[in-house]
Amino acid sequence: MNDTFDLRIGESHIEVHKFHGGTILLSVLFALILQSFLPVYISKAGYLDLPLLITIYFGLSRRNPSTGLLLGTIIGLLQDSLSKTPLGLFGIAKTIIGYLASSIGARLDTEHPAARFALTAGFFVLHQGIVVLIQKLLLAQPQTWFTMRLLSACLINSILGVFLYYALDRLRKT
Amino acid sequence: MMAMPSRHRSLFLLTGVVLLQILLLAVQIKRDSQGRLIRVWTVSAVSPFERSGAWGVGKIRDTWRHYFALSDTARENEDLRRENGQLKLEVMQLQSKSAEADRLAALLSFKQKQAKVPMIVARVIGSSADANSAVIYLDQGQREGIRKNMGVITPEGVVGKVIESFRDTSQVLLLTDRDSGVGAMIADSRIHGPVGGMGEPLLDMKYVGADDDVKIGDRVVTSGMDRIFPKDLPIGTISQVKAGTTFKQLRVRPSASLEKLEEVIVLLTTDPLAMKSDSTAPASNATIPSSGPNQLASGAKPTEKQP
Predict the structure, then answer these.
(1) What is the count of residue pairs from A and B with beta carbons less than 8 Å apart?
(2) Whole-angstrom distance, CA of residue B151 vs CA of residue B247
């Protein structure tokens, strides 16, 4: 699974994964549509955060912080506009996640399923932390930092992430 | 001039993008606007897919139901041949009646009973992209007369209210959302108190005095005080009662299945319905167009445009 990853920090040589044309755009659209469509028929689908998983995956794969953060911004703002939240809430959170994912992707082995699981869990918690922080500080909305639902959502998304990333790996250019 | 290292460039970009979005948040809070233009674009882009998805799911469900109905019928036919009971076949045919037809019949019946209020049936095509907010999207919008702050119900009870209306789609805030609220009262004792969401399946009923007599199982209905919902529509039943120093802590289980909504009714008026329903005659715009079940399924047009 690690055959496409070449880590040579000293020489600044990083393998950047490329995708077939339109893959990123279609993945983002598909994730957003599913995110708002699935919970109508499957109430437990509300636990998923597919736009976040897409942000993390392409951040880790592209390994370019600028691209990662801009992709995070776009996905976050689109998610905001499909919710009742003010524009920028998920935008800021996903911008930071996109930046961190691509920065980490350039430094660590992010191809192994265990690493992907751990990173997704970490990013999920951080994302939620940023959202709650913005809601508390900027929007003056009372929010709780931790709930059992958050823990379940974190586990579900991390497990799903491993399989989703594996599927998205198939769309890479060889 | 020395070139900026790539790492610093991306850090500057990150800071800039985050600051811009903080500014965007601040502008929205100050102006109390929600970036409507971007929302209209996004919803317009996504809703056709959701609409097609809802249509596809409906078709798949119908096919699935018919398949099972047919296979059950075949099995039952063998028994029937043995038992020679024509009656069992009829029962099977009744059992194969789709759940959707039942729901639509209930909606039609409800609509006929509430003849004073103009209303329209809409299908749920999507939900919020944010798991923390309880919002749904309907397949009817401004073209059908849906406007902001209109009430949304099902025959079982109150669902929520319209918070945004687009050309062919509208956004509804469910009762379970933290920002949601409805004027309510206990059906039997007529004790008033607003009911609001907590971001959980149960609702919260506030400001009911510690001395008031409230029991688990008491029905909670709309009071009409919010001027969105007519009086006496079911909201839910009291499921938890805790004593408090000044007020009781009451939890209400919603009557409508808010997690399994597929069709809802939008009350096509922003006039104070409670006032109107209490008065003698309905106003000129408070009429329902005559419509059969088919029209009901696709959504009937209001007779007059709402203000």
Answers:
(1) 143
(2) 28
